[in-house]
Amino acid sequence: MRKLSYFIGMSLDGFIAGPDDEVQFLMDHLSPAYLEYLKTEWPETLATAGRRHFGCDDAENTHYDTVLMGRATYGLGLKDGMVDPYAHLKTYVFSRSLAESPHPAVELVAGDPVAKVRELKRQDGLGIWLCGGGNLAGQLAEEIDELVIKTYPVLAGDGIRVVSGEFGPRPYELTGSRSFDNGAVVSKYARKR
């Protein structure tokens, strides 16, 4: 069965974006060594335009072949004209407000996210990447098998939490961690069942 991984960047205080969907404050902490790590270890998590820019557009998907995101996360790229931000992955956008997909390769899901993820887990393929946002992560909390958290050395104070939803502790086990010269730390956790 395929795994659902929440691979996400966040501030030290647990925010994935600012109150108005700002993410640049996280991107300000990229460095050549850190970008090289993402290019070689997690190439499918770079947007298609980023893959071209960094010269890794021919890289094979190593972890994921499917990406899930909420409407707000999808909207970040959409406002810059990226109608299919991850053309190298099968893309699902969970939204009750979008009536029609801006791109034929992007499938809109208006129904129950949990039911859709369970359906996807039963299919053959690589892992499933939940790339945002916090609301969708909260709805899918029971289905998240793995966390890959890129923690950046900045406090946000307010914004969109990494997971939004009702209180419900879910234990994870640290399976790996790597720190970088830019102060970022990438930590990987497996769900304890």
From TrEMBL:
Taking the record's annotation, the residue ranges forming a coiled coil are none
Q: Name one Pfam family in it.
A: RibD_C
* InterPro entries the record matches: DHFR-like_dom_sf, RibDG_C, Riboflavin_Biosynth_HTPR
Q: Which domain of life is it from?
A: Bacteria
List the SUPFAM superfamilies hit by this protein, alphabetically: Dihydrofolate reductase-like
Which residues does the UniProt record annotate as the domain Bacterial bifunctional deaminase-reductase C-terminal? 3-185
Q: By its UniProt entry, which PANTHER family does this protein fall under?
A: 2,5-DIAMINO-6-RIBOSYLAMINO-4(3H)-PYRIMIDINONE 5'-PHOSPHATE REDUCTASE, DIHYDROFOLATE REDUCTASE FAMILY PROTEIN (AFU_ORTHOLOGUE AFUA_8G06820)
Q: What is this protein called?
A: Deaminase
